[in-house]
């Protein structure tokens, strides 16, 4: 399955690039603070960064890799990330948790499927695009 993973490729091509995530780890669209919602090119950078599922650290670039994973594997990874972040049905409510979980897994699969393997992409709020 093609999925987005953290990469140092393309780092430095834009001012403010950073990669604190582990090279090759799965990434998801992370949470965006109010400051970055208003100005994703300013603020803390969360509005233009992916979040690493293992390291829980961010990167402004991701690369498409073809991984030997299934959608069930992606679901397990997201569930573990949510658990580590303290998100659960008990905290959020069953329906809100279900929506967030389905949207997160769906985005990971959708964004990985769009481009050929090896393509480096960037994030801006809810979109993923070519550099």
Structure write-up:
- With 131 residues, the protein is an alpha+beta fold.
- It has one domain (2-129).
- Helix content is 34%, strand content 20%.
- The chain is built from four helices and seven strands.
- It has helices spanning 34-38, 71-84, 89-92, 94-114, and strands at 2-6, 27-29, 50-52, 58-59, 62-66, 120-124, 127-129.
- The strands form two sheets. It has a four-stranded antiparallel β-sheet.
- Strand 3 (50-52) and strand 4 form a beta hairpin.
- Helix 2 (71-84) crosses helix 4 (94-114).
- It is globular and about 40 Å long.
- The relative contact order is 0.23.
- The best one-word shape is globular
Q: Which percent range fits the helix content?
A: 25-40%
Oligomer: single chain
Tell me the strand percentage band. Answer: 15-25%
Enumerate how many helices there are, as a single number: 4
Strand arrangement in the largest pleated sheet: 1-5-6-7
Q: How many domain regions?
A: 1
Q: Element order, helices and strands?
A: EEHEEEHHHEE
Mean pLDDT: 94
- Which structural class matches the secondary elements? alpha+beta
Please describe the biggest sheet, giving its number of strands, its sense, and whether it closes into a barrel. Answer: 4 strands, antiparallel
Count of DSSP strands: 7
Distance between the termini: 23 Å
Radius of gyration: 14 Å
| Poorly predicted runs | none
């Amino acid at each position: 399955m093609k999925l987005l993973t953290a990469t140092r490729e393309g780092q430095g091509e834009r001012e403010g690039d950073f990669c604190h995530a582990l090279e090759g780890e799965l990434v998801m669209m992370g949470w965006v603070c109010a400051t970055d919602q208003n100005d994703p090119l300013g603020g803390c950078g969360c509005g233009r960064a992916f979040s690493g599922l293992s390291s829980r650290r961010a990167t402004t670039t991701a690369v498409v890799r073809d991984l030997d994973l299934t959608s069930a594997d992606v679901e397990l990874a997201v569930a573990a990330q949510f658990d580590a972040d303290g998100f659960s049905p008990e905290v959020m409510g069953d329906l809100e948790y279900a929506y967030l979980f389905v949207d997160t897994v769906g985005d990971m699969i959708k964004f990985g499927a769009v481009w050929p393997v090896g393509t480096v992409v960037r994030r801006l709020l809810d979109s993923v695009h070519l550099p």
